[in-house]
């Protein structure tokens, strides 16, 4: 994906292009990296998400709002957004980080998203950064269900099936890719009684299982 395509997905045209370059530069590449922008973006992100949750869920107490915010701003959620943006292909990484697959590592991707938010904030102010965050989080905010607060995908899927006396899903590694130090796992989640089979890929078996479970849960939800 080209940088122009990335800008189109972000919906922001940088007045200071150097900020975009810095946001996409990992510390392994040069000293002019995205760590400071990440620090700034993290604060902006937390403020915007907190505001959105406060407005969307007026009945929720502070503790539940805090847990929802933590769920949205944690590494897997940010990495999911980065994957959707195809951000990994745009990152500037050092040789060692490239060889170890840094462009697809969740922590690297999550940091880059926060850095982008920080870059937009410096480039055009809080309103522009807020618009970006709401755009990036539109799907996650829409799907947010306070009743599943703090539960991961495998737990939610298991509880749903147990409540309907359906056999629990099986998780099978169907493929591994890459070198030993940089492997990705393809896991299948199978629920024969519902004729559901989903597959997901991630940098660890556990993460792949969670993603496959999430796909299965979403498939069940759409059919209800």
- Number of separate strands: 3
Overall SS class: mainly alpha
Tally of helical runs? 11
Kindly report the name of the CATH homologous superfamily of the largest domain: Ribonuclease III domain
Helix content range: 55-70%
Average pLDDT = 90
CATH architecture of the largest domain: Orthogonal Bundle
Largest sheet: 3 strands, antiparallel
Q: State the low-pLDDT regions, or none.
A: none
CATH topology of the largest domain: Ribonuclease iii, N-terminal Endonuclease Domain, Chain A
User: β content, as a range?
Assistant: 5-15%
Strand order, main sheet: write it out.
1-2-3
Query: Which assembly state applies to the chains in this document?
Result: single chain
Alpha-carbon distance between the two ends:
36 Å
Rg is 19 Å
Which CATH class of the largest domain is shown? Mainly Alpha
Report the principal-axis shape: globular
Order of helices and strands: HHHHHHHHHHEEEH
Tally of discrete structural domains: 2
Q: How would you sum up this structure, described in words?
A:
The longest helix has 22 residues, at 35-56. This protein is 58% helix and 10% strand. The chain is built from eleven helices and three strands; from the N terminus they run ααααααααααβββα. Strand 1 and strand 2 (184-191) form a beta hairpin. The two termini are 36 Å apart. It has a three-stranded antiparallel beta sheet, with helices on one face. The protein has helices at residues 3-10, 17-23, 35-56, 62-73, 75-85, 95-99, 106-124, 126-136, 138-143, 153-163, 205-223; strands spanning 170-177, 184-191, 196-202. The protein folds into two domains: 3-148, Orthogonal Bundle (Ribonuclease iii, N-terminal Endonuclease Domain, Chain A); 153-223, Double Stranded RNA Binding Domain (2-Layer Sandwich), CATH 3.30.160.20. 31% of the residues are buried. It has 224 residues and is mainly alpha-helical. Helix 5 crosses helix 7 (106-124) and helix 10 (153-163) crosses helix 11 (205-223).
